[in-house]
């Protein structure tokens, strides 16, 4: 098998071209000596940086990415001067390939041939060395990319010291220094891990047995080559740390290139002005996580945590930490909020001291490996179990879940059209002995349990209808089940066991072997389940990891992106071809203490984008204008094209399943739509329900209030209103320029979409063509009357008056645009003039079926979730809440649902469009919450309706929303006047619902 590299991926070519363009424009003179690189100007070309940033769409991102000026902190200021370029690339997008190709490009275009690659850890160093020396990688850059050169890797390793006399000069340093630029087809790369500089004197001692030219110290010789320094994983080599300082002070690089998915944070300023920024400097490329997920450059993530059987929510778990044979056992109880407590138990003692659910279960015996319980269960050191159902091993349940997801994915990958994809799973554990066994014989209890569970699962998979090829692969797995799993732990490096050494070699260095379905002997290769103790992180990767199961917690402070990083790369098939035309997902299995993992991952990704964030599934008017201008299209016609193709709706919401198609057909949107697409990061435990159950006992407490709220009311005005409208209309038509042809010109360019029509307003001295339909005059009047609720005869009279006053009209002006402008103008006038003059009258109409009740008055079992909230989280709301789930539209609404108030008998979200309060703005209004509250004397007569507005202050409430609230206030006054008192209140972020209720209770007492 040969891994095939791709030559023309845009996201990889852009950073290569960017660095090369800046360097090429910044060269000052040719090399002064044969072992040196060309010399760069004191400052990198500002013009070239501007062009590169513009090409990478970075100019408008500088502020929100917090790109910092050069030399911010005192530590950084003290370092020798060096030029710095930053290239941000998300894990799994080909960072090593990009900086390798950059070296070839700088050699080809500028003559550079001395590069230092500094990495923070040995695994990264091993992975980089493996990539640079792979035969297929060499062939790719020579034959496919047409670079007439090859890399000579100078791998710097620790030296064995001589017992006496001078030390041997590291051969890697000699080969690097003496590499001559007259040898046109050689690029010399010194690869080192930073510890070689910070721990010991490998490159700074002066007692070596030879000189390098005129230099006694290796660092001086290396610095004299005027090298380019490449730093991999910059978050591990911070500019304020000793590793970075050692690199700069010893090597004096002309140019530093930092490549990473994560960059360090930097504290700047003092006192009140002290704040944290992301340590970017000359950032010339930003392939962030959001773009990587949205563009399908990496796998998506499907997080899932284990719950108790029967759907019961897991709240706590017990882990056996250690035992002293025959004496005592140490156990830890952990709750969902990560709080934990440790207990010591002796033989005969009751586990009820840990948790009430374990009361009656005693410790019968303590062996050298675990404890025996009075219920017949045996728990081994390192094992976890639920107190709620103590017979269930937590690890066992997580393994079952992980294997279920693995085989779902494997079956699909194996039986796909084209060549099959080998599917791997990675398990992180925290106890080596549980896998290797106490004697290191690969016979630990966890490994044995895993093999037992795997055997049962493979038999179940064999019972399915499978292709003959996949059935044969499953049977081969069953026949050689022990060979299907292997582990690597740092402790293994000192292990002499031959089988363990083979496992370690395969996992660390046998990437192609892991990806193959057959062994070198031609037998089925069933190895695909890998175990580690979080040792496999940066520096190790395999593109075909599709499931990661965390049987151990990594801690809450670790980057969530780093955690999933081992499984994000796009897979390759059995011939080594990278597959990028499918929406692959990584199954990520965690325990219940990390149930919010998906939310934290989304927050981390979007937090990296800065403050200018919005949903990836919406586009603005200015977005449409921008793309239309780039395509030299009429704005309205372009918008109609987007709707006709089914990409967006009238409100400019992108149809989720159409996002990829939209960005493929209109690539301009790829750089506009920000934020990670949440369908690329899913939480399987929080799949929104279609229906939410109504708690019938709770509904009976507010049945009377619900019936009153659903009575129909008619909106009417005082008689003088007709005269007021008639008098205002002619001036309104003239002042608002209601009637016009198909072009509009004004001061700002904003395209608004109202009432399912596109309206261009306040254009910046540019004409925006409206898509118009012309109407006969009588048809126009009828449509206008329907849209404004103004009688035809008043509209006709107003138009005639406007013409008499010199307003010019032609037949073509009775069009769709004029109709829309008229409706907007009338609504605006009503909101300004009529709010205090509205009246409500109860209609003689009895409501039959409602959103919560059937036609016969009985309460429904459930309500459509979308009626009470588009957002959904799992959990059990307080018992006084009307529904059994959290469905909401804003954080303020969720806060209200979660707030328990002693005086409240029952409360609930009012289903949308159920209470239809007519308003002056030609639309109906429905508030958010209803409450039944006990008065101070214990009676249930206080009824409250609350409108939530998730704003920080009332002045932020939009005028049209304010109009609706004002109408609602009049509505509930009328209801109270009719004998049924309802208190209506509006709520913003700064006001808690408990405060509102308490004030009403005190007021009513």
TrEMBL record:
Signal peptide: none annotated. Residues 84-264 form the Helicase/UvrB N-terminal domain. GO terms for molecular function: endonuclease activity. It comes from the Bacteria. Residues 880-986 form the Type III restriction enzyme C-terminal endonuclease domain. Keywords: Endonuclease, Hydrolase, Nuclease. NCBIfam families: PRK15483.1. This is Type III restriction-modification system endonuclease.
């Amino acid at each position: 098998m040969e891994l095939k590299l791709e030559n023309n991926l845009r996201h990889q070519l852009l950073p290569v071209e960017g660095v090369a363009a800046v360097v090429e424009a910044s060269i000052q003179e040719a090399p002064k000596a044969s072992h040196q690189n060309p010399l760069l100007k004191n400052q990198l070309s500002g013009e070239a940086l501007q062009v590169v940033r513009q090409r990478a769409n970075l100019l408008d991102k500088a502020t929100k990415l917090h790109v910092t000026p050069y030399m911010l902190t005192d530590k950084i200021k003290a370092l020798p001067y060096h030029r710095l370029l930053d290239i941000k690339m998300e894990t799994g997008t080909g960072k090593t390939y990009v900086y390798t190709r950059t070296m070839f490009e700088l050699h080809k275009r500028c003559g550079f041939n001395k590069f230092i690659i500094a990495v923070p850890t040995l695994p990264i160093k091993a992975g980089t060395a493996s990539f640079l020396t792979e035969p297929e990688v060499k062939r790719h850059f020579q034959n496919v990319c047409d670079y007439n050169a090859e890399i000579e890797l100078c791998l710097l390793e620790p030296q064995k010291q001589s017992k006496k006399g001078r030390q041997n000069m590291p051969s890697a340093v000699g080969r690097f220094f003496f590499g001559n630029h007259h040898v046109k087809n050689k690029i010399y790369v010194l690869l080192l891990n930073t510890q070689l500089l910070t721990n010991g004197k490998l490159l700074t001692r002066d007692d070596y047995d030879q000189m390098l030219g005129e230099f006694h110290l290796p660092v001086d010789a290396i610095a004299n080559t005027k090298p380019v320094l490449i730093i991999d994983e910059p978050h591990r080599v911070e500019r304020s740390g000793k590793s970075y300082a050692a690199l700069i002070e010893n090597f004096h690089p002309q140019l530093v290139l930092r490549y990473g998915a994560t960059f360090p944070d930097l504290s700047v300023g003092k006192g009140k002005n002290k704040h944290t920024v992301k340590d970017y400097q000359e950032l010339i490329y930003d392939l962030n996580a959001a773009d990587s997920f949205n563009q399908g450059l990496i796998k998506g993530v499907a997080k899932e945590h284990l719950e108790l059987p029967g759907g019961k929510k897991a709240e706590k778990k017990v882990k056996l930490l250690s035992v002293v044979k025959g004496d005592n056992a140490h156990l830890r109880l952990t709750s969902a909020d990560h709080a934990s407590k440790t207990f010591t138990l002796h033989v005969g003692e009751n586990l009820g001291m840990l948790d009430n659910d374990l009361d009656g279960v005693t410790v019968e015996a303590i062996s050298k490996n675990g404890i025996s319980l009075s219920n017949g269960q045996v728990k081994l050191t390192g094992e976890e179990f639920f107190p709620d159902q103590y017979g269930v091993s937590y690890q066992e349940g997580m393994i079952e879940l992980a294997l279920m997801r693995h085989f779902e994915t494997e079956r699909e990958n194996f039986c796909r059209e084209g060549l099959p994809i080998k599917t791997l799973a990675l398990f992180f554990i925290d106890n080596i002995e549980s896998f290797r066994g106490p004697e290191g014989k690969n016979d630990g209890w966890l490994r044995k349990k895993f093999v037992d569970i795997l055997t049962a699962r493979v038999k179940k998979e064999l019972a399915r209808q499978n292709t003959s090829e996949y059935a044969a692969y499953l049977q081969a797995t069953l026949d050689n089940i022990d060979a299907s799993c292997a582990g690597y732990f740092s402790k293994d490096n000192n292990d002499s066991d031959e089988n363990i050494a083979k496992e370690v070699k395969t996992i660390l260095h046998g990437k192609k072997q892991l990806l193959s379905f057959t062994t070198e002997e031609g037998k089925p290769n069933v190895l695909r389940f890998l175990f580690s103790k979080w040792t496999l992180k940066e520096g190790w990767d395999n593109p075909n990891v599709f499931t990661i199961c965390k049987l151990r917690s990594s801690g809450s402070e670790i980057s969530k992106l780093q955690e999933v990083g081992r499984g994000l790369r796009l897979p390759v098939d059995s011939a080594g071809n990278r597959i990028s035309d499918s929406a692959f997902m990584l199954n990520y299995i965690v325990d219940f203490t990390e149930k919010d993992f998906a939310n934290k991952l989304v927050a981390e990704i979007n937090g990296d984008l800065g403050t200018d964030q919005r949903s990836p599934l919406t586009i603005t008017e200015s977005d449409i204008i921008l793309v239309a201008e780039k395509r030299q299209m009429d704005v309205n016609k372009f918008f109609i094209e987007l709707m006709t193709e089914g990409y967006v709706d009238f409100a400019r919401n992108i149809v989720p399943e159409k996002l990829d198609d939209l960005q493929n057909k209109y690539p301009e949107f790829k750089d506009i739509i920000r934020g990670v697409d949440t369908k690329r990061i899913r939480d399987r435990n929080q799949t929104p329900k279609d229906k939410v159950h109504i708690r019938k006992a709770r509904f009976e407490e507010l049945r009377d209030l619900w019936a009153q709220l659903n009575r129909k009311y008619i909106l009417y005005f005082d008689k003088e209103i007709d005269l007021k409208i008639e008098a205002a209309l002619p001036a309104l038509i003239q002042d608002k320029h209601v009637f016009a042809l198909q072009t509009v010109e004004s001061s700002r360019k904003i395209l608004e979409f109202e009432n399912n029509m596109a309206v261009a307003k306040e254009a910046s001295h540019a004409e925006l063509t409206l898509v118009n339909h012309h109407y006969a005059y009588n048809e126009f009047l009828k449509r206008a009357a329907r849209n404004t609720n103004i009688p035809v005869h008043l509209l006709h009279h107003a138009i005639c008056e406007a013409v008499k006053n010199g307003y010019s009209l032609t037949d073509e002006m009775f069009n769709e645009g004029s109709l829309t402008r008229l409706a907007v103008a009338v609504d605006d006038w009503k909101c300004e003039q009529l709010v205090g003059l509205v009246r409500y009258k109860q209609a003689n109409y009895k409501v039959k079926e409602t959103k919560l009740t059937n036609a016969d008055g009985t309460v429904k079992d459930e309500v459509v979730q979308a009626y009470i909230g588009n957002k959904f989280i799992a959990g059990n709301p307080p018992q006084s809440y009307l529904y059994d789930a959290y469905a909401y539209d804003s954080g303020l609404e969720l806060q209200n649902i979660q707030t328990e108030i002693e005086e409240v008998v029952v409360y609930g979200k009012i289903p949308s469009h159920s209470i239809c309060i007519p308003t002056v703005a030609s639309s109906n209004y429905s508030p958010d919450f209803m409450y039944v509250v006990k008065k101070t004397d214990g009676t249930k007569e206080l009824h409250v309706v609350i409108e939530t507005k998730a704003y920080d202050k009332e002045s932020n409430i939009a005028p049209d929303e304010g109009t609706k609230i004002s109408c609602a206030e009049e509505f509930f006054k009328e209801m109270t006047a009719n004998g049924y008192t309802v208190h209506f209140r509006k709520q913003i972020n700064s006001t808690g619902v408990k405060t509102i209720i308490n004030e009403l209770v005190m007021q009513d007492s």
